[in-house]
């Protein structure tokens, strides 16, 4: 046997020692319904559209699918349908805050604004360094929705396989290590 080949016994040992819970997240976040046929579990239809819009602003379609394409808003809806009432209230309060702030700044709801104004609002509430006191609630909401969108996206098949180019369940005979040695304090 060549030195870079993996012995069958090593593969069996690796599989036997692997926890059963190491199933890919892709399967748990896959779209179970055809596009356009999802019925919200938690959001109203208007809230669902708002979350989809915000998600696409956070992770837009490029040469890979965007947050809307992978159904991040649907995943967030399913998750929020199962959390505590306090968490549900906080999220809805954040959506309501965004709508109010949009009307205060531009005289119209967030969905009615053009892309430039929507982006301006999200930019305004995303940076703690330049945050205005009136936007503190918006910042907490933005951090929450951004983390939910990013998690939903990168645990989807498109996010994991296309964007991150995850190769799937593979047994490696050796690990090359991280190519960014300067970021781990292990380079001199």
Architecture blueprint of SSEs:
Blueprint: H1 8-17, H2 25-29, H3 45-58, H4 72-80, H5 85-106, H6 115-126, H7 136-154, H8 157-163
Helix pairs in contact: 3-4, 3-7, 4-7, 5-7
Whole-Å distance between the termini? 37 Å
Q: Output the number of helix runs.
A: 8
Kindly provide the radius of gyration, computed on alpha-carbon positions and rounded to a whole number of angstroms: 21 Å
Written as H for each helix and E for each strand, in order along the chain, the element string is: HHHHHHHH
Helix proportion = 40-55%
Largest sheet: none
Which shape, going by the Cα principal axes?
Answer: globular
Total count of strands: 0
Give average pLDDT, whole number: 81
Low-confidence stretches: 15-32
By oligomeric state, this entry counts as: single chain
β content, as a range? under 5%
Give the helix/strand class.
Answer: mainly alpha
């Amino acid at each position: 046997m060549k030195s870079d080949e993996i012995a069958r016994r090593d593969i069996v040992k690796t599989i036997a020692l692997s926890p059963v819970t190491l199933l890919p997240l892709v399967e748990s976040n896959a779209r179970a319904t055809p596009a356009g046929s999802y019925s919200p579990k938690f959001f109203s239809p208007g809230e669902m559209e708002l979350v989809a819009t915000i998600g696409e602003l956070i992770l837009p379609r490029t040469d890979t699918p965007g947050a809307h394409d992978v159904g991040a808003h649907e995943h967030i809806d399913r998750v929020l349908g199962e959390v505590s009432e306090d968490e549900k209230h906080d999220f809805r309060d954040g959506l309501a805050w965004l709508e109010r702030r949009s009307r205060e700044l531009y005289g119209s709801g967030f969905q009615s604004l053009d892309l430039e104004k929507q982006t301006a609002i999200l930019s305004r509430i995303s940076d703690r360094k330049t945050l205005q006191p009136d936007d503190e609630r918006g910042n907490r909401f933005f951090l929450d929705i951004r983390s939910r969108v990013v998690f939903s996206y990168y645990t989807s098949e498109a996010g994991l396989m296309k964007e991150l180019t995850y190769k799937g369940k593979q047994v490696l005979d050796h690990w090359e290590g991280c190519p960014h040695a300067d970021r781990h304090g292990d380079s001199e």
